[in-house]
Specification:
There is one protein chain. The chain is of the alpha/beta class and about 325 residues long. Helix content is about 35%, strand content about 25%. It is built from eleven helices and 13 strands. A five-stranded mixed beta sheet has the order 1-7-6-4-5, sandwiched between helices. Helix 3 crosses helix 4 and helix 8 runs parallel beside helix 9. The longest helix is centred in the last third of the chain and has 22 residues. The chain binds oxa(dethia)-CoA.
Length: about 325
């Protein structure tokens, strides 16, 4: 038994912030942001629009594409690092907003790798016969945790959500998933406070994402190269067997380095970083949805999804679409 993706969806909030808008906010230039990161614009949530709101719109699109309704869904998981509340978890809030009752619903915290982690867990449940129709989402409202006066970080991030529906299938499907983490890098990319650590700092409301960008960059390039090799080796595949690379959209130069490692021309790499910025857990499922909907990804294609983020966490999924 395998799990197979039967529908994809995404949602981007309406408001767009361009590099030129950012030039008016911090000491930066469109040219610097484009050449260093590949980003030109990003979407930002409206006042009061939460991560679960973004999830619900992406989920509805994925459910429509898969031809399923709320009564069909029996498993919900959301990869996010920007939950609406500490609890109930974002999966439960999405469940309630979709009018679904009773099924397992939870969120997974793995920063930018959150969707790959959530997909891997859902895949195991569907394969085992314990879920018949899983809703898997990657979503972030990062705009709320960005310091809009810090040019090192504020030019990079955006909001959005991507979703897939997984169903059982005798044919693959999700062929393999690979998850990793190493907390020794916890101080290179992080949010400084939480509920059980520095709660007073959190309540004061002036904590923001912190990142040592160029150190993260170097580890990301190395690590993503390794996970690509691990995924190919596990499945006894050649680089040329991969039809599409769907990478985490953090930085165009990181994406190019991974593509080089795979020997893939850039026209086989799904690139959304220019228009979405870095949307953390939302980036991979949104990129997948873009390429499914514009017809580039076809049934039977072999896809390699990969992500890397705070923790560090990293992971990949090999998919026969
Ligand atoms: O999603 C999870 C994983 N995250 C990532 O993978 C992000 C990884 N890192 C990156 O994408 C890149 O490191 C950045 C895009 C964040 C930065 O690019 P970089 O080529 O590594 O630049 P840098 O941090 O080494 O900074 C180069 C210079 C510095 O000035 P000096 O020290 O050379 O005078 C920065 O102060 O660029 C300066 N700088 C800026 N200049 C204009 C930093 N941010 C900006 C800015 N505008 N927004």
């Amino acid at each position: 038994m395998y799990s197979i993706i039967t529908g994809t969806g995404r949602y981007l909030p309406e408001r767009i912030l361009t590099n030129f808008d950012l030039e008016k906010m911090v000491d930066t230039t469109d040219e610097w942001i484009r050449t260093r990161s590949g980003i030109e614009r990003r979407h930002l949530s409206a006042e009061g629009q939460t991560t679960s709101d973004l999830c619900v719109e992406a989920a509805k699109n994925a459910m429509d594409a898969a031809g399923v309704g709320p009564d069909d869904i029996d498993f919900i998981t959301v990869g996010t690092t920007t939950p609406d509340r500490v609890f109930p978890n974002t999966g439960v809030l999405v469940q309630e907003k979709l009018g679904i009752h009773g099924c397992a619903a939870f969120s997974v915290e793995a920063a930018c790798t959150g969707f790959i982690y959530a997909l891997s867990i859902a895949d195991k449940y569907v394969r085992a016969g314990d879920a018949g129709c899983a809703l898997v989402i990657g979503a972030e409202r990062l705009s709320g945790m960005v310091d809009w006066t810090d040019r090192d970080t504020c030019v990079l991030f955006g909001d959005g959500a991507g979703a897939v529906i997984l169903k059982p299938s005798e044919e693959p499907g999700i062929v393999s998933t690979h998850l990793h983490a190493d907390g020794k890098y916890k101080d290179l990319l992080y949010f400084p406070s939480g509920i059980s650590d520095k709660f007073e700092q959190l309540k004061a409301g002036n904590d923001f994402i912190r990142m040592k960008g160029n150190e993260v960059f170097k580890v990301a390039v190395r690590t993503l190269g390794r996970i690509v090799e691990e995924t190919l080796a596990k499945n006894q595949l050649e680089k040329s067997d991969i039809d599409w690379l769907i990478p985490h959209q953090a930085n165009m130069r990181i994406i190019q380095a991974t593509a080089r490692k795979l020997g893939m021309p850039m026209d086989r790499v799904i690139q959304t970083v220019k228009d979405h910025g870095n949307t953390s857990a939302a980036s991979v499922p949104m990129a997948l949805d873009v390429a499914v909907r514009d017809g580039r990804i076809q049934r039977g294609d072999t896809l390699l999804l990969e992500a890397f983020g705070g923790g560090f966490t990293w992971g990949s999924a090999l998919i026969k679409y």
